[in-house]
Amino acid sequence: MEQTTAALYVTIGLLIAIVAGLVFWMIRRSRRADAQREATARQHHDETESLRATQAQALADARTQHLSAVAASRRDHDRQQASLRAEIDAHEKLQAAAVFAAARGLKWELASRQQLVTACEQAGLDAVIATNIVFAPNEAGADPFCAQIDHLVVTDNVVLLVENKRWAGMVFDGIHPSTKLPGLATVLNDADLRPPFAVQISRTSRRSLKIRFAENDDSPAQQARQQALRLREFLRATMAPPLVDTCIFYSHPQAHVVTGGSYTERSMTTVMATPQDLPAVLTAAHTRRPGRLGADAAADVIEAVRALGADLVGVGRFEVDYVSPVRLEYRIPAK
């Protein structure tokens, strides 16, 4: 009995020892697992922090590079923009100089050119207005010289030479001033004037007037007729020259013009026009002899004056084909 009890105690002791060993082993194993987990966590944390630091540094480097590239791009853009602006300024300056040079030859006809274009538009004409036509007539026995025509209005029906007179004050063309203002007979003595003639009375100062007599070859009508004959003879070398009608355009907006409307000599009629009646005068010239010229002959005349360096402005169907580099509103700048 005692031996059995002793064996039981030994067995129980062994079981307790085994259980205690298992408990101790499990505790140590749990501690080792906890330590390993902590080590793994620390390693993961360290790796995460390292990755975060690397990513932050990469982002900082990328931001720095981006800002540097943006700054360089902006500097390059600014340089290109400044260079382009300089090129544009130089081009605009060159263009302005070219326009000024072109307009300088038109100086006295810039305003009347605009009035003629506007009048053709109001009249509904298909026309080309040629301005400042310069050519060298070949006249027997005369020294070489240049003739200058203010304007030429060309339609399919007519070639109309327009002599521009920007005369201010009172103008009497073909009309004796004393017949309109009898008191002027005491100072003008105009009874002996014979057509063609023109008289201008203008103010030169607050207390003085100027009187201009333009008679015979110096009269506007005779000047226009002579220029028309010279142009027709000049064109004869390259084409069958068309008849050239003539018009005196008194273009000053503040002039008071008194005329008989036209002057006729040897079947050649010169009409007088003011800004107010210019559209009607152009319409009458265009419709007076329909079909007399024709589109082909009109084109030949236009090309002939283009070759002489004339400024061309198209109206109606000619508007797109003939555009002047000097805009209609352009005026020579004041000094």
Structure report:
By secondary structure, the protein is an alpha/beta fold. The model has no long low-confidence stretch (mean pLDDT 89). It has seven helices and eleven strands. The strands form two sheets. It has a seven-stranded mixed sheet with strand order 9-10-7-3-2-1-11, sandwiched between helices. A four-stranded mixed sheet has the order 6-5-4-8, covered by helices on one side. This is Nuclease-related domain-containing protein. It holds the Pfam family NERD. The chain crosses the membrane at residues 6-27. Residues 124-174 form the NERD domain.
Query: What string, H for helix and E for strand, traces the elements in order?
Result: HHEEEEHHEEHEEEEHHE
* Annotation field: number of helices: 7
The total of beta strands comes to 11
Which structural class is indicated by helix and strand composition?
A: alpha/beta
Oligomer: single chain
Keywords: Membrane, Transmembrane, Transmembrane helix
Protein name: Nuclease-related domain-containing protein
